[in-house]
Amino acid sequence: MAHDGGEGFLLTWRLSPDEGSGRISLWCAPGIPLAFRYDEPVRAIDPSVVRALVTASYEGSGHLDVTALAPVSPPATT
After folding, report:
1. C-alpha separations of 6 from 1, 26, 28, 36, 53 in Å
2. Rounded to whole angstroms, how far apart are CA atoms 22 and 37?
3. What is the DSSP secondary structure assignment for residue 68, as one 8-state letter?
4. Is the whole model's pTM more than 0.70, yes or no?
């Protein structure tokens, strides 16, 4: 079966120090030119939050509470 090239894919790379910090992600698909630049490092994702979001998505209310995904400030150091 021949591939028609219609499927999109995400291409991500880290920027060099000369280009600044962070990373760039490109969504490569016909007709959908998207580029994302992230200046902060990738944060860990809490698996329990993902499970809660998946469970909520099955409830059919049309509302997902994503406040748990908000960045948490690191504890203050003295």
Report:
1. 14, 16, 10, 21, 29
2. 7
3. G
4. no
